[in-house]
Structures are given as C-alpha cells and as structure tokens.
Amino acid sequence: MKEPVKILFISQEIAPYLPETEVATMCRELPQYVLEKGCEIRTFMPCFGSINERRNQLHEVQRLSGMNLIINDTDHQLIIKVASIQPARMQVYFIDNDDYFRRKGTVCDAEGKEFKDNDDRLVFFARGVLETIKKLLWTPDIIHCQGWMTALVPLYIKKAYNEDPFFRDAKVVYSVFGDDFKKKFRTGFHSHLMMEGIENKDLAAINGVKNVDFVSLSKLAIDFSDAVILGSPNVNTAITKYVAEKGLPCLPYSENYKEDYFNFYSSVYPPMAE
Asked: Average pLDDT for residues 108-122, to the nearest whole number?
C-alpha cells in the first residue's frame, strides 16, 4: 500500500484558537481538507498568550518539552503543547515560551503597537517547530509555511537543516499574505537568526537592510522556497514582482483555495500525483 504524503503546516494563526481572520480561517480549513484527502499532517502555531488554554484544552507534552534554544546569547526554554479540533480529528501543536508568548496579544499589544521583539519571536518559533518535528521522528514531504512569522523556516530547511534526514528531501511552499507588519525589526536581527550552515551570502535579501521590513523578510523566505502561494488578493506588489523575477512556481490568489492548493502541492511534489 502506498505511503500517505506527509505535509507539515506551520501557521501564524489558526481558528478557533484565534479570531477568524483570512489567515486563521485558511490555516484551519486547509489541513482538515488535506487530511480528508488521505494525507498525513502535522500542524503548528505559536502559543500566543491570548489563547484561552483551558477552554481549548491545551496541555503540555512533557516528552517534547524542555529543550533550550539560544536566541541572542540567551537560553529560552521550548515548551510544546497540543490540542485537538474534535470535529476534524486534527491535532495542533503549540510552540510556547514564557519570555516570548505569555503576554496578551499576538504580534501587538492592547494599543495596537507591535512588539519590539517580534524578530526574536520569529526565530524562536521557526527553530522550535523544526526541533520538535525531529523529536516526533516524523519526516515531512511538503512543508507549507503560512504567514510572515514562518518566514525563516525556508532558510533553515535549505541551509541549516539541509543534510538532516528529516528535512533534506522536503519541498517548501511559502504563503505570503497582505498582513504586512509596520514596525521594522531591530538592528541585529541578522546575527540573531544565524545558525550553523548559514552564511552571510545566504542573506542577500536582507543584507544592506539595517532594519528588516515586511518586504525584505518576505524576499528572504522566497529565496529558499520551492514554490510560492499568494494567500491574499492584496499582496504587496514588490513581493509579487520579486516572485515573478525568481521564476518560481506561483499559485495566484484563489477563493477556491482548498482544492487549488491541494492540486498545487501535487505539482511541487510529483509523487503526490502518482
């Protein structure tokens, strides 16, 4: 019997854990659709402090928690939680840390001001997901990154984890949305994201950019992706132009996204169509 295709969804937000935005709704419905099509999935998102853990029945997975990740020369404990969306029989894993995700709000405070450490939170989330996948002993065929908080995953997969048997053969799909953040990242982001296997030349999209913005971060993600999806009708034109210049497979915005995305996966990972 043919092995099911394994798809890892790394999402910035998922309903019902967060309000039903364009991104959160898509990241909720798409994994279920793929699961019902016979694929095997794992789904991750940040454990933002605004999530009601009791109501949503989140609980810590002790065997996966406990690792420390060093960000900006400081140890940060990686805590993994899990919950189930019962009607869909779908599990969601949450990346948590007291320093980065215990505050109320997602990427902004109550006054709408973006958190100044969103840059380091992005690093922690990306690395936390990949280390957890290794602990799960699970090898994805396709990795779908959804939203700018997942933007470092393509770089890490293709450079830092490129020889790792869990990731070396995976195809990376990056979805870019119209959810531009406004506060540029702090000076020093370049050094904070570095890992063994990554060289300065790999950061061409952000080299020379003192304070990384949404466009330059998106370009960095695109540089190391195998394919791109335009998840919104209003994606920044500088990004759509960059995708065209790179010549990558690109799926335009579609309201019929579940079926179209599933078919797009098959074109990116041909064994899926066999």
From this structure: 95
